[in-house]
Amino acid sequence: MGSKGGPVWVFAEQIDGRVLAVSLQLIGQARKLADEMETSVEVVILGSELGEQVQKLFAAGADRVYLGDDPSLTFYQQEAYVEIIVELAKGQQPEIMLIGSTSMGRELAPLVAARLETGLTAHCTGLALGEDGTLEQMIPAYGGLISITCPVRRPQMATVAKGVFPMPTVDENRTGEVVPLDVPDGLPCRIQTLEVVREEPEGVPLESASIVVAGGAGAGDLEGWREIAALAEALNAGLGSTRPVVDEGWAGLETMIGQSGKMVSPELYIGVGLSGEQQHVVGIVGAQVMVAVNNDSKAPVFEQVDYGIVDDCREFVPVLIEKIKGRQV
Length: 329
Ligand SMILES: Cc1cc2nc3c(=O)[nH]c(=O)nc-3n(C[C@H](O)[C@H](O)[C@H](O)COP(=O)(O)OP(=O)(O)OC[C@H]3O[C@@H](n4cnc5c(N)ncnc54)[C@H](O)[C@@H]3O)c2cc1C
Description:
With 329 residues, this protein is an alpha/beta fold. The protein has helices at 21-37, 51-60, 78-92, 103-116, 222-234, 243-248, 278-281, 313-328; strands at residues 8-12, 14-15, 18-19, 41-47, 64-69, 96-100, 120-124, 126-129, 135-141, 144-148, 156-160, 177-180, 211-215, 238-241, 268-272, 289-294, 307-310. It folds into two domains: 8-180, Rossmann fold (3-Layer(aba) Sandwich); 206-328, 3-Layer(aba) Sandwich (Rossmann fold). Helices cover 29% and strands 25% of the residues.
């Protein structure tokens, strides 16, 4: 049961002048929440030459778009973006503010929340309205999903990763109101993005891979990790990881799957040397067939998967690679 109140806001992130998929997914979810709350969906987008993108936001479900279109905002400028969003939010009083859990969003959201003196739930895996109309912000914890609420302060703020919500059904005939933002000179700029240099991602992109091989702490060391990476390569699979792998520096953050990483939905997922903690597993719920290799027959991951192999991955993986290569010859 909802109640009329302030709008549901989405901060729409753009890169190279194109709105990110996660932002459109959030607009879709904001639409559902706003309909229940009998309020509107408002989107804030900052950048330059964004004219063509605005219709995408309406088509996805926005009623109003606050458009900060200025050459000085082409790249993400931390302090300027925070300043604009905070000042606008103080005036417009959104009830909810959703931001993509991207590299930018992870930095922007807590800065905005701190300035607005409100709460923020990071990396939500679900959003719904509670009986009293407050936003239930779901995150994996204590072996299940828990709901965090922000009962007093507003807006209720959450970050959500790409793939948690589906792409909305677009309606190209939808229109709305565009509110151009006055981008003042002299916005704070102690930190400035001058240039963006992109690294070409290695290997098969995780999000679109039909096979994903994910390795965990059970790899043991960098050499063990490289074997798991070799398995991914032999299968032409995307290579995923758990947090300890990233913490050890065996692989980059871009490989991490789960609550604070990526969501994957391959036809086949093979988890090697990982325990199956909720924060990881939440990222693979879209997988069709799941296999785990773990030397502990009681590892929780075996409760999650379709096929379990109890073995030492350091012995099993090289043999599997040989078998795969043998079949390919
Ligand atoms: C807020 C929050 C967000 C988080 N977000 C994420 C996230 O997005 N993604 C993520 O992955 N984690 C995340 N985590 C961490 C998560 O809770 C777990 O700690 C992590 O997923 C465990 O990684 P692991 O399974 O590799 O390691 P462990 O839990 O240490 O498991 C290692 C497994 O390897 C097995 N093993 C050991 N040796 C071998 C061997 N030789 N052969 C075969 N198996 C072996 C062990 O039996 C064990 O089951 C998050 C945590 C928090 C608190």
